[in-house]
Amino acid sequence: MALTLAALALGAHGLSPARAAQPLAAPTPPAAFANPQAACRAALDVYVERFAPGRRFALGAVQQLEAWAYAYAQEVDAAGRPAGERFIALLAHQEPGSGWYALAPRVASAAEYNALLERFPAALSDESLKAYLRQPEVAVA
Q1: pTM, 2 dp
Q2: Biggest distance spanned by C-alpha atoms of the chain
Q3: Is residue 74 within 8 Å of 87, Cβ to Cβ?
């Protein structure tokens, strides 16, 4: 029996051709929150769960201008004291009629994170801050 490249590729990923032909489920939309603090906290919790399990982060003050906000979270020790220099920048936006949403780096794609960052008003984040927060969209080998 001759195997096609597609069949080999599917087998390498544990998918049968029948399973591969089924449509993918739509991603779960992010939850909306009543305020930017809650949205940033939720985004931070997802980041920690996926990329920093066992570590603790303290959410700093949320900087907000109308429907836009951002906050930094700093890694802390068990007593809540700063531990190292690891920071996470969280971006939040209020969608009319639905609530606040927030993105954390790596949880969202770099393209999605950067697109939201570019929409921030200059009064809240100038070009130098945007350049600092922008995530690399190309993996470096």
Answers
A1: 0.75
A2: 65
A3: yes
